[in-house]
Structure formats: C-alpha cells, structure tokens
C-alpha cells in the first residue's frame, strides 16, 4: 500500500466517523410509518406502461406524476418539446427561504421496451412483490394489508421498478419525509422527470434550451442506476456516452430453400457473423481503427477513487456464471473508463419452433457503442462505418437498389439511431462534489464508493452543454435489478435507503 | 464439344422428337374442362393449417385426404405410427388388371412452420389467387366463378400451395383425368401421402416397416420440389440428406446492462458470430475438418446429365440480386453434389423496436447440414461438434450447470434435431429410370433436365433402406415458389403441367 493510498483511506475513514453521527433518523422513522402508502403509490405508478414511443401511455404517466406532485404542493407543470408527439418532462419546485443553493433532482419515468412473453410469472406493467429474487426462487406475495409487516428484502417486480421510477419515488418520498419531520431543505429544490431517457432523450436539449431561466441551478442530482455491486452506496461523477447503430447485411432478394441453393447463394447470417467477428479480438478489445483515440485521461482524484473502490470482480464472475471476462484480467472499474462495443441483438431467419430450411434475405445486428469523455459519438460511428468498408462492404443508409445489388458482393446498411450523445464527467474535487459525497456518506455506515464514471449512460452532456451547471449521479437501485431486461426488480431496502440518501442531499451543508 | 457430349445431345434430341408425338391430349382436355373444380378442391385443402406438430389440424388434413380419395374409390386408409401423436400417412390404391408393375406416388401434405406476420397481404392458411407473382406487383384476384376464365399465369398463394399439396393435387387429378378419359393406367398405382416430411419424417421408417407387404412396389414416384429454374421439367434421381442442429452459446446467467457491464462481460452474440465465422472460408467452402470426405463420386451417366443441363447461374444471380455466389465460380448444379452448411436462423437479444441496451444471456443458431451420397448424417454432426471443440468450446447437449460455467470460458450446447437422414440416389441407367424419363419427356416440347441429385432433401434413403425399391423424383412446382418461406405460391400452369406429367408416368410403357 503506497503512502498516498494510505492517506486517502484514512481520510475516508475520518469522513465515515464524522458522517455516521449525522445519519438522519427522522427520515427513517417517517418511512417506517408510511411503507404501505409508499408502496401503494409506487405500484400504481408502475402499472402505467411507460415506453417512450407509446404516446398515449407516456402522457398517462406524466399526468400521474403531476397529480403526485400537486399533492405535495410542488407546482408541477409539463415542459413540452416543439414536437407534440414527444414525451413531456415533468417539472416541479420548492422554494426554501434564505437558501443560496439550487439543486435539481432528476429521474426518468419512461422505461425500456420489453416483450412481456419473456417475463417469468409476472408481467412488466402488472407490478408484483416477491419474497426474494426470482433467481433464488422468490415467490409472489400479495400486496401487504395495513397491519401486515413489509420485509425489506422483498423485491418489487415490474418495468421501471428500478430504472427509473425508483428514482422518482425516492426523490418525492424524501421530500415528504423532510416536510413531515420538520427538517428543512437547505437548498431550493427543483424536480425534473424525463419521459424519454430510454429512447436517448432526443428532445431534452430543446426542452432545456426553452427553459433556461426556469432550470437555473448549482447542480443536477441524477437519481438513476444501481448502487455498487458490493451493496455500498455510491456517488458517480460521470457517465459513458451512448449511441446505437443498426447494421443489416443482405443475401438474395427473396428467401431461398436452403437445400436447392445452399452452398451457392450467400447466407447473410454468415456474412454478418464474419463481419461482427472482425470487430473484437479474442480478449474482447475492439479492433476498429481509432476506437480508443481521443480518450480524455483521468485526473489524480479519479484514479485514486478507482483504486479505493472495492474489487468485486471475482464475486461478480461467480454470481454471473462467467469463467472468463474480457479485457485481459483488467477490472470492470478500469474497463468502464474505456469505450465499448456491444451487440444488443442479432437476428436472421428464425430459431426455435419457427426455424425452417431457408437462406434468409437479411441479417441484422443492433450495436451499442459506449463512449468515454473526449470521444464524439458521431466520430465513433464514422470509425465503425470505415471499418465495415475496410471489410469490403458497400456501406449505405437504406435498402440497396437492384443496381447496387448487381455491383456489390457485400452490402451493409448502417444507420445510427436517434439520440446518441457524448460522455460527461464532473470533477471530483469541486466543493459541491465534496458536499454531495459527504451527504451520501452521512447515511451509510460503510464507506461509500466514488466513481469517476458509471458504465451506464445518461444524457448528462446534454445538460452541461446547454446549462451552466454540473451533474452528480446518486444511484439507489440494487445492482442485480435486471435493468433493461425482463424481470426487472427493486429490492425494497434499496428504496428505503434511497429515500434517506435523497433527503441527505436535500439537507446537505 | 467432345464427341461424347455431341452423341449425348443427339440422343436427347431423338428422344424429344419421339416423345412429343405421344403427348397426352385427353388429359389436357379434361383439365381445361375442370379447372374451376380442381382449384376449388385445392383451395379447400390449403385452408387447413398443416404444420406437422399441430396435431389437431394435421389430423384434419388427413381426414380431408381420406374424403378426397374415397370420392375416387381409392380405398384410403391411415397408416399410423406407434406414437399416437405422430401424423399418419394417408394410403390408397388402384389395381390395374394385368399390370406387372406397381408404382407408389408420394407427396406430403404437411408444410413448413411460418409466422403469418411475415406474409404480405395474404395469410398462410387463407389461400388466395394473385394475377402474377407478388414480386412483380401481382394483385389479389377473387376466386373465379364458373363462367370466368382462369389465367394459367395466376399464382395461388398459401402455405404448401407448392410444397407439397401441389404434389397431392397433381397426383389425384392426373388419376381423375385418366379414368374420365378412358385411358388406363399401365401399372398398379398406390398413393402415399406423408404427414411430417417438413419435420424430417421421424416416423416414416416405422410406418414403412409396419406396412412392408402393403407397400411393395417397383418404384416410388416422388412428386415434390420445383422444376428447373429455366422452367423445364425435370426428373431427379437423388436427393441430398439433411440434418438440423441447434447451437447455443452462453454469456452471463442473467441479462446485463450493456453500459454497466459492456466490455467486461462476454457477449454471447459475438461469441456465436466468431464461432460461425470459423465454419466457412471467404469462398463459402466449409472449413470443418473432413466435411467433404466420404462423398460417393458420380458415375458417367450422372456427369453427362449435369453437363447437358442448362447453365442458368447468371440469370439466377441477376434475378436474385446477387453479385457473387459461393464456390469460386463453380455452378449451382455442381455445388449441389457437395455437402453444405447453412445458417437457417440466428438470434440473440432483440433487434428492431424491441432492441435494448443489454448483453443477452445466450445466442442461438439453427444449422442446416445437407449431405450427399456416402456421408452419414450422424458422422457429419460429429465433425461439426469436433470443430466447435477445436475452437475451445466445452460442448454439451443441455444447458450448462453452474459448475460447468465456473470451469469453462466457452460453452456450446449442440443438439441435432430429430429426423436427420442420409442422401439417396437411384442409378440413371436402370430400365425404370429410362422409362420415367421417357414418360416425362413425352409431355414436354423442350428437352427435360435429368439431375443426379436435387439440392433439396427428402427422406428417400428411409424408403430404400426399408423397402426393396427405388425412388424417382418428378417435381412440378415453379422454382420461384418461395418454398419454406413466407408468401409461398404456385403458378397455375405448373399444376396443369404437373397433372399431365403424373398421368404420363401412370401410363408409361
């Protein structure tokens, strides 16, 4: 252990001793007395389907949030984009007399699309409690009556139970608890609930620009994402950027019988497989030229924070059933500070009962490009396109014409999806950064984790590019929440803890 | 042109002159007078869903066939496997007094599974006529009333319109026409309609063994598959063998957020892509060790027939929109005499609107292995498994246990589907082979094509392994019938021609 690291550990220990004393007991007492109501309000919100493209239902969510905020006297209003089809952001505010600081609490109320057929036993928008996680056999339990105890290890299953209606609930309930317990927020508090984060927040920049005055603040507190895999609370100072790209390659113009034409007509599934295979080496390193250029290096405080963070990779590998991980023995925390390339989905023809003896006409992959600070998302997509060209493909952005088919043996349609954005990172040594760390630490007996960047993405660069402010992310969900997948769930203790965390930030010095 | 080839061409020309004179006019007259009834009976049969695993509907098909054959006095009966869930074969017979030869006419009444959502404008089991092929804008036309003319270029759209209820209809209608026109079959005729061919006919061997006496014959005439791409009629002396294999590879035990775990947790879609990429080289040649071993070479007559066949590759490439084909400039007809490896389907996560930012837990491909005479299907699967092992995979035949996951970085589940079978080929110089060629030629003004083997597969080895007989395939469908895919269709003229072809074989010398 270097002297440097020893001092840093000592500083954290002191912070820990100081903070634990400050833990906010009235908030916990309020929550204990109101668990049934909190859960009821939460489950009602989860019952409203919330895919951003589902225009009617997303408006129902916004209306529900307005009603919830009206009950709290937060003067809610919808912030609309110029496109009436875009989901609105839901805004509210609370003025604290004499406060010199303004904080905006951000969460998003939309969720990832999901196929209900992939869920086990429950459905995405019919939230249900289980006694434990599904993976360990947790059975469904009826919503508890007022006189029945609620076990904090229970899990709430439903789309956005974790990502990110949990954030909405933690923020609004923390506010309830503060007001009810007579504790006063130390800052002016603004609430901003995004309705299209999972679609890449394509209208967020416009909404911010249209409401610059209204949204003045010293910092945005982003309540989204999971706590550390070890269960420790964390403050995250940045997020990876993100952009999704559809790649389609082509075979014959019509599906062909695999017997009559097999080993003569090219199979697009194989063409795609071979193309994807060129994008990473055996260790998982992306082989696309320039992929790791432009990375803005981490500072001293950031490197120290990574070194301080618990090393959890072996436990994770064991829990996930992985004998090997990518990156040649480098840790997850290190790798998160590099750009990635992931295949979100890949499809050609059918598998399972619908499989049949055909040569499919197309094969498609959806690629997910994560970016770190310094890399521009448009430039990264361009590198991908150049790479595909180098493999001999004629790259276009729509279906090929007959003439193109006659001239090019390999054709790929490459189309970035809307809503790509860059990474963002707030310096860890700013006064407001230190204040938030201290506030979150005050609610936890374990040292909290400070991460320069999260692996996940949020359009935080959109906020800092459009408004003079910084962002600090304070996640609350359990890390095994199945975020973005089927069987998404929230461990109730994480919501209870999250309420305390949010209240601490609302009352921080 | 070699002397040999010149003589062979001369022989075909003589056969042509001789045969055209024999063309069976009464059959054509019968068909012209009965087109509306034929079409009505056909469309009623096509309206019954016919996936082999759809137990209830497959029985409805069998019952419909029994009724159709009772009307023709063919003494129909169901030939059942010992498994009551298996589709029955439908059998019928016609004794011709004094006949010394017995022919069994084979077709199958089941069809490939299909997703109705992929069909354009019509549905798989709601047959409809179009004025032309969909690809050239053929509009749906109402079934013609009795006084309305039927255009023979119309197409009938529906699952099995071509593959292979067209075979059933051609055989039964040819028989009608013979009886009605007073022409007598020259052989005893047996009818055998398979109900599970598209599922690989897993119970056919048992049904044949249980009915050895009943099914004695000199030859099976297999009415299945398309005519030559040039539109010429053909007689096919063999079929490729076929076996399907499911291959699944694994990532983490639960779906992971692609941001939080991307470039640390291995992505099974990429693992599968890389694995599939090792199976063929750039020219499309299979790189699996031993893949081309054991091939039984073609004889003199077979090589001559291939040389005689029309070279159609350029036209096909142009029609299909393919600038390149596999096999380094070798022709489709040549390549069909080699074993192939095709990806029928490939899937991991989701694409399109359901795509989301996850690392999927598994990736699956369904492989279709076509075999030629000499190669055993079990041995070919074993070669595939060995190849996957050589790429570093632990190969198993069920989902991996937790312990296996901890020990093996790469795991593949490889499971051959039921119903694999070997290739079969009948010698082209047998007397019955020459008789069938002559009969089919008698119905066509163009020289027919004789192929040593079809690219497609039928369980013909099961027939010749279990019964002392030979098989000869006489296909009738248009080659662009979208067999096995959505929008399957039959050009009516192909059915009209097919009736004449079947009648010619029933009355051959």
List the topology elements.
Two copies of one chain form a homodimer.
Chain A: H1 3-20, H2 25-46, H3 55-71, E1 77-79, E2 89-94, E3 102-108, E4 128-130, E5 140-141, E6 155-157, H4 165-181, E7 188-194, H5 204-210, E8 219-222, E9 234-236, E10 238-250, E11 256-257, H6 258-261, H7 268-277, H8 300-308, H9 313-320, H10 332-335, E12 340-349, E13 358-359, E14 362-371, H11 377-390, E15 394-396, H12 402-407, E16 411-416, E17 424-425, H13 431-441, E18 449-451, E19 454-457, H14 460-466, E20 470-473, E21 489-491, H15 492-506
Helix pairs in contact in A: 2-4, 4-15, 13-15
- Just name the CATH architecture of the largest domain in chain A: 3-Layer(aba) Sandwich
The profile of the biggest β sheet of chain A is: 7 strands, mixed
Broad CATH class of the largest domain in chain A = Alpha Beta
Low-confidence stretches of chain A: 1-10, 13-23
Secondary-structure class of chain A: alpha/beta
CATH-defined fold name of the largest domain in chain A = Aminopeptidase
Number of helices of chain A: 15
CA(first)-CA(last) distance of chain A: 33 Å
Q: Please tell me the total number of domains of chain A.
A: 2
Radius of gyration of chain A: 24 Å
Q: Strand content of the residues of chain A, in percent?
A: 15-25%
The oligomerization state is homodimer
**Tally of extended strands of chain A?**
21
Name the chain pair whose interface involves the most residues.
Answer: A-B, 103 and 102 residues
Q: Whole-number average pLDDT of chain A?
A: 93
Determine the CATH superfamily of the largest domain in chain A.
Answer: Zn peptidases
């Amino acid at each position: 252990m270097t002297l440097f690291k020893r001092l840093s550990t000592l500083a954290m220990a002191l912070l820990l001793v100081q903070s634990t004393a400050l833990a906010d007991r009235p908030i916990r007492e309020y929550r204990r007395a109101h668990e049934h109501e909190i859960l009821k309000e939460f489950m009602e919100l989860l019952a409203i389907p919330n895919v951003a493209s589902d225009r009617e239902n997303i408006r129902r969510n916004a209306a529900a949030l307005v009603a919830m905020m009206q009950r709290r006297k937060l003067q809610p209003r919808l912030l609309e984009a110029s496109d009436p089809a875009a989901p609105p952001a839901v805004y509210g505010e609370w003025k604290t007399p004499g406060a010199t600081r303004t904080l905006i609490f951000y969460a998003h109320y939309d969720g990832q699309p999901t196929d209900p057929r992939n869920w086990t036993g429950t459905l995405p928008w019919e939230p249900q409690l289980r006694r434990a996680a599904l993976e360990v056999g947790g059975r469904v339990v009826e919503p508890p009556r007022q006189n029945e105890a609620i076990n904090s290890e229970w899990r709430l299953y439903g789309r956005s139970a974790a990502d990110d209606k949990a954030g909405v609930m933690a923020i609004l309930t923390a506010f309830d608890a503060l007001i009810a317990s007579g504790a006063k927020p130390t800052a002016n508090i603004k609430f901003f609930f995004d309705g299209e984060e999972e679609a890449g927040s394509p209208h967020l920049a416009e909404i911010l620009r249209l409401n610059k005055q209204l949204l003045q603040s010293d910092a945005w507190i982003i309540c989204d994402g999971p706590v550390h895999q070890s269960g420790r609370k964390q403050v995250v100072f940045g997020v990876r950027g993100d952009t999704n790209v559809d790649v389609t390659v082509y075979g014959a113009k019509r599906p062909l019988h695999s017997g009559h034409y097999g080993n003569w007509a090219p199979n697009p599934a194989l063409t795609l497989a071979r193309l994807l295979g060129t994008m990473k080496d055996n260790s998982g390193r992306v082989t696309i030229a320039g992929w790791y250029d432009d990375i803005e290096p981490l500072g001293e405080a950031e490197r120290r924070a990574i070194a301080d963070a618990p090393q959890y990779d072996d436990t994770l590998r064991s829990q996930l059933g992985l004998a090997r991980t990518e990156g040649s023995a480098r840790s997850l925390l290190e790798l998160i500070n590099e750009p990635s390339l992931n295949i979100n989905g890949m499809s050609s023809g059918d598998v399972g009962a619908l499989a049949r003896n055909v040569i499919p006409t197309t094969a498609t992959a959806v690629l997910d490009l994560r970016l770190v600070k310094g890399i521009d998302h448009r430039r990264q997509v361009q590198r991908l396109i150049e790479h595909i060209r180098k493999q001999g493909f004629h790259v276009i952005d729509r279906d090929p014409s007959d003439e193109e088919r006659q001239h090019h043996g390999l054709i790929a349609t490459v189309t970035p999806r809307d809503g790509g954005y860059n990474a963002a990172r707030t310096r860890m040594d700013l006064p407001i950064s230190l204040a938030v760390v201290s506030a979150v630490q005050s609610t936890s007996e374990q040292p909290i984790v400070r991460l320069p960047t999260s692996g996940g993405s949020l359009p935080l660069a959109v906020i800092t590019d459009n408004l003079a402010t910084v962002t600090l992310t304070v996640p609350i969900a359990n890390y095994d929440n199945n975020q973005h997948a089927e069987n998404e769930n929230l461990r109730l203790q994480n919501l209870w803890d999250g309420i305390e965390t949010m209240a601490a930030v609302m009352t921080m010095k």
